[in-house]
Design a protein that fits this description.
Layout: E1 7-14, H1 18-29, E2 34-37, H2 46-49, H3 70-75, H4 85-98, E3 105-106, E4 111-117, E5 122-127, E6 132-140, E7 162-165, E8 180-184, H5 188-200, E9 203-208, E10 214-216, H6 224-232, H7 234-242, H8 262-275, H9 291-308, H10 312-318, E11 330-332, H11 335-338, E12 344-348, E13 354-357, E14 361-364, E15 368-370, E16 373-376, H12 385-388, E17 391-393, H13 400-403, E18 424-426, H14 439-459, E19 464-467, H15 469-484, H16 514-526, E20 532-535, H17 537-540
Parallel strand pairs: 1-2, 1-6, 2-3, 4-17, 6-18, 7-16, 8-9, 8-16, 9-12, 10-11
Antiparallel strand pairs: 4-5, 5-6, 13-14, 14-15, 19-20
Helix pairs in contact: 1-14, 9-10, 14-16
The structure holds 3-acetylpyridine adenine dinucleotide (N01).
3-acetylpyridine adenine dinucleotide is lined by residues 57-58, 145, 151, 166, 184-190, 192, 207, 209-210, 328, 349, 354, 377-380, 435, 494, 499.
């Protein structure tokens, strides 16, 4: 390390998305000096990077926003049910300006390493420009899906055309007009991009490994009166989201799909299909715990695919066979209809695997497909991937990667902290409800808990907070027990890590319900942070 003067702050926050922006706002209001580092040149996080055609949110806009400020909620007007990426990005820019956050955000800066210095009892943060910064608290707000997965397919470097990953889309428009385009991957990103690109490209070839259960989003513009009413009901909406299982104001039907007569169940599914959005997954409480109920939902969606897609061979290839919902349910706009277009070709790469990428396109076991553009909609190394991109080292120089290495289960306390890494907080970290809850609401809960915790520590002259091994073992066991009672753990997806070659399989999302989780975290705080070691430096040295 050089002898340069090292800047020091109370808190370093990583990422200027929903999490980082609100964390900064909270810490400032409590008088903590804070700096946010952001790799991009603007705010927005996932909505800054995911600019691919068709990108929009799958949670309704009136719920997919901050609730910490009534004024903000009243000032901002969403235009449609499911907001487009550009609109969410505008919203986050508005928030950054509205609360004058930019002055404490350093853009175009990547944190490469964060090491806990045991002599100073502080974190030394290493930046990609060679600078260092010392901080008491280190807080990650880097999301669960920011480490892009570009599969290691032989020959990519030889490809003469252009290629893109959906999560690192260029800022300028990619022109597909008159082009032969190939897209690999049919998860949420691929399914949103395919109908839009198909309208522009000369030919679109979809390389599908696993078909998906997707429900029509039924996006529409909002009426003025609806928005007025929503704003009037802000407090009630906020209360119901914050006290709900999923961070949205929707109640789940408490009935089992198997208790309902066939005709009634069919009508319930039809109604949810017509309504669009996530209503379908809330039709019965046991779709993800009872295999028979699950199959009823799965077969309903397959029947819809067979109705929509005209070519029965293509329709059958598009019918998923795995258990409904064990991969994230997708919302689409005209996805299956797109396969009725003459310029769209579906290639089943389970039947005929991709062998290599050539200078001119993609070679599968049976065919060569000439392409000018290849799009990787191949997802992310989820949950731990973003954290592992940074060399985070706690006590004794042990890295997070080593602590959670192959097969050794990830262990956290509340999905927020982990033993051996004092004063490290992970917003929406592994083993918290995160991606199975409406994210802005999950983020607000974490941010407020962290800020309160830091305030408490300062008020009580406590310098370090770190979970006990016992507390984190108990939390992780509870997390696994809850997950193992569901069908989620049986799926092969980024939820379980099965999408990344060699990644140990584990389900790292807390499924006990957002309401229960919030109550639990609050009780930990009310009981003087039970499960944490609270340390005063005076008594350490
Ligand atoms: O990624 P995915 P995503 N050869 O992992 C395939 C959120 N999100 O970016 O299923 C061939 O879901 C892979 O196949 P398989 C949301 O939480 C939200 O689409 O592994 N194919 C799969 O089809 C979502 O769940 C929104 O067999 C390969 C696809 O690539 C999460 O982000 C929008 C392959 C990856 O699907 C991730 O979604 C977008 C290979 N080597 C994203 N490797 C909204 O809010 C992978 N695949 C709406």
């Amino acid at each position: 390390m050089s002898s340069q003067t090292i800047k020091e702050v109370d808190a370093v926050v990583l990422g200027a998305g929903f999490a980082g922006l609100y964390m900064l706002h909270q810490l400032r209001s409590k008088g903590f000096s804070t700096i946010v580092y952001e790799a991009g040149d603007g705010v927005g996080g996932v909505w800054y990077w995911n600019r691919y055609p068709g990108a929009r949110c799958d949670i309704e806009s009136i719920y997919y926003n901050y609730t910490f400020s009534k004024e903000l909620y009243e000032e901002w007007t969403w235009t449609s049910r499911f907001p487009e990426q550009a609109e969410i990005l505008r919203y986050l820019n508005y928030v950054a300006d509205r609360f004058q956050l930019r002055s404490d955000i350093q853009f175009n800066t990547r944190v490469t390493a964060a090491h806990f210095d045991e002599k100073q009892h502080k974190w030394m943060i290493h930046l990609n420009d060679g600078q260092y910064i010392l901080t008491r608290y280190f807080i990650t707000g880097i999301g669960c899906l920011s480490a892009a997965n570009v599969p290691n397919i032989q020959g990519l470097q030889q490809f003469n055309g252009k290629w893109y990953h959906t999560g690192h889309w260029p800022h300028e428009k990619v022109d597909f007009t008159g082009k032969r385009v190939g897209i690999i991957g049919t998860g949420s990103s691929g399914i949103q991009a395919i109908p839009v690109i198909a309208k522009e490209a000369e030919q679109l070839t979809v390389f599908q490994r696993t078909p998906q259960y997707t429900i029509p989003a039924r996006n529409h513009a909002y009426e003025e009166d609806f928005i007025k009413e929503t704003k009037k009901n802000f407090e009630a909406i906020k209360r119901s989201m914050r006290n709900s299982v999923s961070g949205t104001p929707f109640a789940q039907n408490q009935q089992s799909a198997m208790e309902e007569p066939d005709d009634k169940r069919q009508a319930v599914f039809e109604k949810a299909w017509a309504q669009g959005g996530f209503a379908f997954s809330a039709t019965y409480h046991d779709l993800l715990t009872n295999e028979q109920s699950n199959e009823k939902a799965a077969e309903f969606i397959r029947s819809k695919i067979r109705q929509i897609v005209k070519d029965p061979v293509v329709a059958e290839k598009l019918c998923p066979k795995y258990m409904y919902g064990t991969k994230r349910q997708v919302l689409d706009s005209d996805y299956f209809e797109t396969y009725n277009r003459e310029n769209v070709l579906l290639v089943d790469v389970k039947e005929s695997p991709i062998q290599k990428i050539t200078g001119e396109g993609i070679q599968t076991a049976d065919n060569h497909f000439d392409l000018e553009i290849i799009i990787f909609a191949t997802g992310y190394d989820g949950m731990t991937g973003p954290l592992f991109k940074i060399d985070i080292r706690g006590r004794n120089g042990v890295s997070l990667k080593e602590k959670w290495k192959d097969g050794a289960a990830v262990q956290t306390y509340l999905g927020l902290t982990t033993a051996g890494f004092p004063n490290l907080f992970m917003i929406t970290g592994p083993e918290s409800p995160s991606v199975l809850v409406n994210m802005p609401i999950a983020i607000e809960q974490h941010v407020e808990w962290i800020a309160e915790c830091m305030h408490y520590l300062r008020e009580h002259d406590i310098d370090l907070v770190e979970p006990t091994i016992e507390a984190e073992e108990a939390w992780s066991t509870h997390c696994r027990d809850v997950a193992n009672a569901t069908l989620y753990v049986k799926g092969d997806s980024w939820y379980t890590g099965a999408n990344i070659e060699g990644k140990p399989r584990s389900f790292l999302i807390y499924l006990g319900g957002f309401d229960y989780y919030t109550k639990y975290c609050n009780e930990v705080a009310q009981n003087n942070y039970v499960g944490f070691k609270l340390m005063k430096l005076k008594s350490i040295s």
